[in-house]
Design goal:
The protein is mainly alpha-helical. The chain has one domain. It has two helices and no strands. The chain is elongated. The protein starts with 10 loop residues before the first helix and ends in a 6-residue tail after the last helix. The mean pLDDT is about 75.
Length: about 60
């Protein structure tokens, strides 16, 4: 499983998954934002992810 960066499932992450798959690894690059708008700045991303860190039930 490849965990994407804070700004969502980008081409670089997709390419990394493809590279591993080319070496016969089963890969999964999940979009954890589930289609919701992604943070456009690192400060917003940090606020967004800190909510998850403080409430583990939201991470399930």
């Amino acid at each position: 499983m490849i965990i994407r960066e804070w700004n969502g499932l980008q081409d670089r992450v997709r390419q990394l998954a493809d590279d591993f798959a080319a070496e016969s690894y089963a890969t999964l690059a999940a979009d954890l934002f589930l289609g919701r708008p992604r943070p456009d700045q690192s400060a917003r991303a940090q606020r967004s992810s800190s909510r998850l860190l403080h409430d583990r039930s939201k991470m399930r």
